[in-house]
Amino acid sequence: MKIFIDTANVDEIKNITEWGILDGVTTNPTLLAREIKRTGRKPQDILKEICDVVKGPVSAESTATDSRGIYEEGKKLSEISKYITIKVPMTIEGLKAIKLLVGDGIMTNTTLVFSLNQALLSAKVGSTFVSPFIGRIDDTGHNGMDLIDEIITTYDNYGYETEVIVASIRHPMHIVEAAQIGADIVTVPFKVLEKMVKHPLTDIGIKRFEDDWKEAERILKES
Ligand code: E4P
Q1: How high is the pLDDT of residue 67?
Q2: Given the DSSP bridges, would you call strands 108-113 and 2-6 parallel, antiparallel or unpaired?
Q3: Closest residue (by CA) to atom 5 of ligand 1?
């Protein structure tokens, strides 16, 4: 399973890149706006630096609403780097724009997907990625992970190549379940990535080994 980070924060991305586990990045207008506010940098500069660091797909969302506007904004964003993936909201205009962008060899990520029908249409137009937002579905009292299961089964039924990015992840159990279902990708906030590493028994084990080793060193010194 590929692991993306869901952030536009360059410091977080550099940090996780050093772990050696990062395959890509997803941003959205909210995340990019947060980074612009934090650093005062231009969005193009932020995205360029992210692409240079990650060297894998980096989703940048188009904010236009008509197909021509989405397409033109996507073309412009794609000039930043070959790694830029145009994130397009799931609408009729979005579908038209995805078809055009894919035709030009530009990677796309259909976003704000909440149903199997939406995911099916995304695959039909050949989107590179599809992003069902499972945390936001959970928030409505339904099980977001059920949708991932349905999409994967349907894509397998027809051999669609669109990769499923499990998005809107809130906690490590979302990742465990996505992996068990066989999702292609999870896009994970920085804080949840940190939680993936942690286990109390690991911490207890490290402490015990340290204590035992110190004791052995003390014995050796005294002998
Ligand atoms: C994914 O592409 C989105 O940027 C993100 O996962 C949305 O997450 P949220 O529902 O926590 O805002």
Answers
A1: 98
A2: unpaired
A3: 168
DSSP 133: B
The tens digit of pLDDT for each residue in 105-151 reads 999 999 999 999 999 999 999 999 999 999 999 999 999 999 999 99
Q: Which of 87, 129, 133, 187 to mutate to test the pocket of ligand 1 (most atoms within 8 A of CB)?
A: 133
| Residue 218 resides in a domain | no
48 is catalytic: no
Domain membership of residue 154 as a residue range: 2-198
Q: Could you say which DSSP state residue 104 is in?
A: T
Q: Let me know if residue 209 belongs to a domain.
A: no
Q: What is the CATH number of the domain that holds 10?
A: 3.20.20.70
Q: Is the dihedral of CA 143, 147, 152, 154 positive or negative?
A: positive
- The verdict on residue 208 lying in a domain is no
Tally of domains in the chain? 1
